[in-house]
Amino acid sequence: RKQATEYSTSSSDDEFESQPSLTHKTKRTLRRRRKLEKETKQLIKQEELKRLHKAQAIQRQLEELEERQRALEIFGVKLERELRGESDSGTKDETQMLHEWFELVLEKNKLMRYESELLIIAQELELEDHQSRLEQKLREKMAIDGKSKE
């Protein structure tokens, strides 16, 4: 009986001694998890800022593009009137005006293609942002599920 009592006492002492180390390990694990979560949040924020800056740059380019298209439109209207003979432009010959007209049409088409590319890039950014938000929600739900299982 004496040995049994000593054994049970020593084993309960071992359990008691291993308990603080377990909590220490748990604390360390929690610290690591929090640090990882913090780093992940920072990376997500950086990605969001990059997308925001890119979206702002695209918006500026679209505005500049719109101004150039308006200027071309005004010049095109003037050139069209000259070609029809509605305007007084005795200095230019018809071949010169036609050449300018075709250059104008080419430039306008080029701007329209560029605008389409910018709009596609903007849509891509929106999709990336939406994906990022969905991934964040998934991480949060998985973290909640993980905590409820523990």
UniProtKB/TrEMBL annotation:
Signal peptide, first to last residue: none
Taxonomic superkingdom: Eukaryota
InterPro entries hit by this protein: bMERB_dom, F-actin_Monoox_Mical
Coiled-coil parts of chain: 55-82
Biased composition (Basic residues): 24-35
UniProt keyword annotations, A-Z: Coiled coil
Domain BMERB stretches: 45-150
PROSITE patterns in the cross-refs: BMERB (PS51848)
Region spans: Disordered: 1-35
Biased composition (Polar residues): 1-11
UniProt-recorded name of the protein: MICLK protein
Organism: Thinocorus orbignyianus
